[in-house]
Amino acid sequence: MMSKIILAHGEGGKLTREFIEEIIFPLFRNEPLKTLTDSAVLGKIKDGKIAFTTDAYLVSPIFFEGGDIGSLSISGTINDLCMCGASPLAISFALIVEEGFEIENLKKILKSAAVTAKKAGAIIATGDTKVLPKGKGDGVFIATSGVGVITKGRNISDDFIEEGDKIIVSGDIGRHGATIAAFRHNLKGKKLSSDCAPLNAIVDALFESGIKPKALHDPTRGGVATLLNETAKRTKLGIEIYEEKIPISKEVSAVCEVLGLDPLYLPCEGRFVGFFKPKDAEKAMLILKNFKSCKNCSIIGQTTKIRNKMFPVLIKTKMGSVRPVDELSGIQLPRIC
Questions:
Q1: What is the pLDDT along the chain (337 residues), one digit of tens a residue?
Q2: Parallel, antiparallel, or unpaired for β 313-316 and 238-242?
Q3: Do the Cβ atoms of 156 and 82 come closer than 8 Å?
Q4: Beta 298-304 vs 166-169: how paired, if at all?
Q5: Are the beta carbons of 124 and 83 closer than 8 angstroms?
Q6: Rounded Cα gap, residues 172 and 223, in angstroms
Q7: Nearest to 200 by CA among 160, 146, 161
Q8: How many angstroms separate the CA atoms of 133 and 136, rounded?
Q9: Helix, strand and coil in the chain, % to nearest 5
Q10: Is pTM, for the whole model, over 0.70?
């Protein structure tokens, strides 16, 4: 096997077959994939509704503290399924690789994706590989789709959110965005790493304990601030959050201070924002704190009657003043996921 990707690896001939059989299949090995045909037969699905998601990943840098584009693509797909109450079942995984990309680095990405899928209890059941001419891409892009099952009792939706519901963030925010920004500006910190991780075990623990979230969302592009604005507009409710309750690590705060970023708008890749009945919120916190990644979980606010349709999300600052948390007109960081 040669050391770098060439155009022929994506042309469907002998090199494509050898690439799949010798590199991809040994890492992703599972029953539906072993036929190596264009589609996967998943078999019978237990009672429930089917959830389906799709996404694309072009993060730069490809490798970062706490993960890489492989683990990010699988975690993101798993988490999109979890946020609608689904248990992940299978993932499709399409590679778009630039000619000249090192095969050893591609192996690292594939292994990372395989390990993350296994951790989440999902299989990578089908996929594709295309190669772009050198200079026409930027290393590696990944496109995924995911299938999951929503079983009885796990139907969640913004339609269930009511005035007075508590809002929980499952851990400290902004880690992924701050990690990528720090890398790009050559800033280093021993404890700064992405929160990139699948959330399904945490979500499962909530449901298994008898606590049913009303709605869940992962604050990826646009961060917590954008997510809350979108939810407020969908529900036609106001949202009030408290600055002192928002968990932000010292490392993330430092990066934001140096680069002039607001952590509320930085993406997370291993956190969720959940809406809960007031009586369930403290119980949910106890469940979450059993997980290392959720030690800093916090009730950051609640839903309210809407006071201003233009600015439905308000934050009470540490100084006691109240200001709107608006949507950004663009993004703070491009190619973040």
A1: 689 999 889 888 888 888 888 999 999 998 888 887 778 888 777 788 999 999 999 999 999 999 999 999 999 999 999 999 999 999 999 999 999 999 999 999 999 999 999 999 999 999 999 999 999 989 999 999 999 999 999 999 999 999 999 999 999 999 999 999 999 999 987 789 999 999 999 999 999 999 999 999 999 999 999 999 999 999 999 999 999 999 999 999 999 999 999 999 999 999 999 999 999 999 999 999 999 999 999 999 999 999 888 999 999 999 999 999 998 877 677 888 8
A2: parallel
A3: no
A4: antiparallel
A5: no
A6: 12
A7: 146
A8: 6
A9: 35, 25, 40
A10: yes
Give the span between the Cα atoms of 301 and 243, in whole angstroms.
Answer: 9
Amino acid at the residue 215: A
Rounded distance between C-alpha atoms, residue 31 and residue 80, angstroms: 24
Q: Would you say 110 and 24 are in contact if contact means Cβ atoms under 8 Å apart?
A: yes
User: Which domains are assigned to the chain?
Assistant: 7-150 (3.30.1330.10), 158-324 (3.90.650.10)
List, edge to edge, every strand of the sheet that includes 123-132. Answer: 49-57, 140-150, 87-98, 123-132
